[in-house]
Specification:
This protein has about 300 residues and is mainly beta. The chain has 2 domains: about 10-180, no CATH class; about 185-280, Sandwich (Immunoglobulin-like), CATH 2.60.40.10. The protein contains 2 helices and 20 strands.
Length: about 300
């Protein structure tokens, strides 16, 4: 008859947390590593077949850019025991283009062609993935995961239950992956040398990445020998496109090491901190020598 989602108290399935929701709208946070599970069998009704042992399941993840297309692109996932005829039909329907223009008969999709289609779909990591699992009492569950650093809405997954006679019933699950801010990351800043009485410019944007923000605020300070190092921009905004530089000027005739701290902060005030050593190299001085020479003016005496 219809496909609905299980409603009840959370519990554990084979060591993984179950998230149960009151309707067909699923939500979870970006970078959430827990699988979101729904029970596909619990509320499926079939008067003629055993819903635990005589039903097969498929899922189609529709491409969000082609929701209104006549021949939409979709990723097909089949559950255990799905007949090849059902699998092939879904592959034809969700290729993203019309296989039989001008009323021509659709070509037969062989298993080798299906493997090529699946290989094409799996060439890049999917933004959204679905897997099937047989749970307690032979019930079928669907698990959802999203790619790292991905968030988005209006994802539609069509689940279809098919009985032994090929009759089926479908339902659509709407998925939203909520954005979660990622803090900036500063990679290791190498040991840096500058010659005494000289200066050096460094671009800390070149060492920093942030998947969510293009503008970061940098705070730069010396935590040792701070009175010996002049920093022209101790606090400044920077973008990944410009990578502004900071000028370091050691005090004249001073040559030691200073520890420099760099803090990158994004618009949500999430930050990362790194430190590195700025080594001021002493300039060799010329040796002072005294030469004693004979003065002929005093070489004779009476």
């Amino acid at each position: 008859d219809s496909l609905t989602l299980y409603v009840g108290w959370p519990f554990s399935l084979m060591g993984e947390n179950i998230i149960v929701l009151p309707d067909n709208n699923l939500e979870w946070d970006e970078d959430d590593t827990d699988t979101v599970w729904i029970n596909l069998t619990r509320h499926l009704e079939d008067e003629d077949n055993n819903v635990l042992t005589e039903i097969t399941w498929t899922a189609v993840i529709k491409d969000t850019t082609q929701l209104d297309e006549d021949f939409p692109l979709g990723r097909v996932i089949v559950g255990p025991g799905t007949p090849w005829s059902v699998h092939a039909r879904l592959l034809r329907e969700y290729l993203g283009f019309d296989l039989n223009p001008k009323g021509m008969k659709s070509p037969v999709i062989s298993r080798s062609i299906a493997n090529q289609i699946n290989t094409r779909n799996n060439m890049s990591d999917p933004l959204l993935s679905v897997k099937f699992k047989i749970g307690p009492e032979d019930s079928t569950w669907a698990g959802f995961n999203s790619a790292s650093n991905y968030y988005g809405s209006d994802h539609r997954i069509i689940f279809t239950a098919t009985d032994l006679l090929g009759l089926d019933s479908s339902g659509t699950v709407m998925v939203t992956v909520l954005p979660e801010n990622d803090a900036p990351i500063i990679s290791e800043i190498p040991f840096t040398e500058v010659t005494e009485n000289d200066s050096i410019k460094l671009k800390f944007g070149d060492f920093t990445t942030d998947v969510d923000d293009t503008v970061l605020t940098f705070t730069v300070s010396a935590t040792t020998n701070e009175d010996k190092i002049f920093i022209d921009r101790p606090f400044y905004p920077d973008t990944s496109n410009t990578s502004d530089s900071v000028l370091f000027v050691p005090e004249k005739l001073w040559s030691q090491q200073a520890t420099i701290q760099v803090i990158a902060t994004d618009s949500d005030l999430s930050s990362d901190t790194a430190t590195f050593i700025l080594d001021v190299l002493r300039v060799p001085r010329p040796e002072i020598k005294v030469a004693v020479v004979q003065n002929n003016a005093f070489s004779n005496y009476l």
